[in-house]
Design goal:
The chain is α/β, with parallel strands linked by helices. The protein folds into two domains: 3-120, Enolase-like, N-terminal domain (Enolase-like, domain 1), CATH 3.30.390; 133-375, Enolase-like C-terminal domain (TIM Barrel, Alpha-Beta Barrel). It has 15 helices and 16 strands. Helix 9 links the parallel strand 8 (234-238) and strand 9. Helix 3 (79-89) runs antiparallel to helix 4 (97-118). The two termini are 33 Å apart. The site of magnesium ion has 5 residues, from loops.
């Protein structure tokens, strides 16, 4: 089998707000075509125009090639070899950032092709399922123009998620820091009140995570607040500091009264090795498209397993990335949850409409997907409706 073409489709939700901190408002869907009529589907979570450029750019020289040029004519089954080829011949322009995100979308599509060609779900090709179901956690993003409205909103979302059958949920609490919600400005004490109100709302029998979205500049400021959360049974605290502050992460991983989670932005296993070995994080959060695809995400999972760390993947795009996360989660023993919001609970029309979602949550769990490859189908009407023109 040979790769014959790679198509990039940029999709944009009609109500895109550049000041909102949510990457679910746009998408790049990458379709990899083959000479046997099988098409693989992938996506990645970063600026879609940058990814399109990385894929379609003409070659500059042998260290700065375009991805499409490197892959046309290759065998889509050669996933590891092709990963290395792209990494090597884009090293000057790539190694991290948009080029790796682009490679991630293509690699995801190659795994979809392999599964479709063999009639097997991707998790089988990744080594087989370690469990018979996945536990999804609800990723909850509140709204509100004031701190009070924002706090009330997240408590309502938490109750709604529990009523929907979720046994785990992540409360976003972004009252300050560079990505604070629509310019809100709340104090650390208000953040503590909100987190406490969430725990009271869901009760003790619910796994609760908190995403604080890079709120603090240094470890001491973080500890001053999160030491007050010791009695709230927080499963993990996500991205308390900027990702390059490895010394700060090392302090928090050692001293905070909960696990520290990070990795949603990271590209390649090399950045996860740093986060785990220098930053000491207990929960690694690869986003399959962004880390470099299923090939690279599986390497991260294995590196985390070797170190006794957990994987809880980041996923905030559409049913494409969610399916890829689910297959990865099944194929490793150290992934207790995936980030998942049923389409009907999601704000993003792309999440709701792009893919006929094969993953259905019942009684708080998602059963094994059985379709070949990623097991998803794109909705052609949504592809047309949201196409960036
Ligand atoms: Mg996050």
């Amino acid at each position: 089998m040979k790769i014959t073409d790679i198509e990039c489709h940029i999709l944009v939700a009609p109500e895109l707000r550049e000041d909102a901190t949510s990457s679910s408002q746009d998408d790049i869907v990458v379709l990899v075509h083959t000479d046997e009529g099988i098409t693989g589907i992938g996506e990645t979570d970063t600026g879609p125009w940058l990814v399109k450029a990385a894929i379609e750019a003409p070659a500059s020289h042998s260290m700065a090639m375009g991805l499409k040029d490197l892959l046309i004519g290759e065998d889509p089954f050669d996933t590891t070899a092709l990963w290395e080829k792209v990494y090597t011949f884009t090293c000057m322009s790539g190694r991290r950032g948009a080029v790796i995100c682009a490679l991630g979308a293509i690699d995801m599509a190659l795994w979809d092709i392999k599964g479709k060609a063999l009639g097997l779900p991707c998790y089988k090709l990744l080594g087989g399922a370690h469990k018979d179901h996945i536990v999804p956690y609800a990723s909850l993003q509140p709204h509100g123009d004031t701190v009070e409205e924002y706090g009330d909103s997240i408590v309502e979302w938490a109750k709604k998620a529990k009523a929907h059958g979720f046994t785990a949920g992540k409360m976003e609490c972004t009252l300050d820091g560079p990505y604070r919600h629509l310019g809100l400005k709340g104090t650390d004490e208000q953040a503590t009140e909100i987190v406490r109100a969430c725990r009271e709302a869901v009760g003790p029998d619910f796994t609760m995570m908190v995403d604080i979205q890079y709120r603090w500049f240094d470890a001491a400021s973080c500890l001053r607040t999160v030491n007050n959360w010791a009695d709230l049974d927080i499963f993990f605290l996500e991205t308390p500091l900027q990702v390059d502050n490895l010394e700060g992460y090392e302090i928090l991983s050692r001293e905070a009264p909960m696990r520290i989670a990070c990795g949603e932005w990271q590209n390649t296993r090399f950045e996860f090795i740093e986060l785990m070995d220098k930053g000491g994080i207990q929960v690694a959060q690869p986003d399959v498209g962004r880390v470099g695809g299923l090939t690279e995400a599986m390497r991260v999972c294995h590196l985390a397993q070797d170190r006794g760390r957990l994987i809880v993947p980041h996923c905030w795009k559409t049913g494409i990335g969610i399916a890829a996360s689910a297959h990865m989660a099944l194929a490793v023993p150290n992934c207790p949850f995936i980030e998942f919001l049923p389409a009907e609970l999601c704000d993003s029309p792309l999440r709701r409409e792009l893919v006929n979602d094969p993953l259905v949550m019942e009684d708080g769990i998602v059963k094994l997907p059985e379709g070949p490859g990623l097991g998803i189908e794109l909705n052609p009407e949504a592809m047309e409706k949201f196409a960036y023109k």
